[in-house]
């Protein structure tokens, strides 16, 4: 069992930055692919970024590529999402996710595929 707790959301002006963090419980953190999704009101939950077990490879949605950076620290059981040059369309609830493979991060229907979800943290970008 893995529990994920996000922090770092908030209100920021367009062009600003925020850093989200996700702390994971359990001793098998390095056995999970970690990533972030987001869900805006009235929209489906969408993939944002993911990193492999060791953190040596990262993957991004086209909409955030070049602006967001995902990183993980297996010694601290944490994964972070640095978000720069934020836009109003980045406004959403952001969810940390963990899975033993990449399936949930590559499907349009991650619900029911991702093994564990955090509770979500709100990010609001004002224009």
Verbal overview:
With 127 residues, this protein is mainly β. The protein has one helix at 103-106; strands spanning 4-7, 10-13, 18-24, 33-39, 46-51, 58-60, 68-73, 78-83, 92-99, 116-117, 121-126. Strands 2, 4, 5, 6, 9, 10 and 11 form a 7-stranded mixed beta sheet that branches. The chain has a 4-stranded antiparallel beta sheet with strand order 1-3-8-7, with no helix packed on it. The chain starts with a strand and ends with a strand. The model has no long low-confidence stretch (mean pLDDT 96).
Could you provide a short overview of the structure?
This protein has one helix at residues 103-106; strands at 4-7, 10-13, 18-24, 33-39, 46-51, 58-60, 68-73, 78-83, 92-99, 116-117, 121-126. It is globular.
């Amino acid at each position: 069992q893995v529990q994920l707790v996000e922090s770092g959301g908030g209100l920021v002006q367009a062009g600003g930055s925020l850093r989200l963090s996700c702390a994971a419980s359990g001793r098998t953190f390095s056995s999970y692919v970690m990533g972030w999704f987001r869900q805006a009101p009235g929209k489906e939950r969408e993939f944002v970024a993911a990193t492999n077990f060791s953190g040596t490879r990262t993957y991004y949605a086209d909409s955030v590529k070049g602006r967001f950076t995902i990183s993980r620290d297996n010694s601290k059981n944490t994964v972070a999402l640095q978000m720069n040059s934020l836009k109003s369309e980045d406004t959403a609830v952001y969810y940390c996710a963990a899975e033993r493979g990449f399936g949930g991060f590559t499907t349009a229907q991650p619900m029911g595929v991702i093994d564990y979800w955090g509770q979500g943290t709100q990010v609001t970008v004002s224009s």
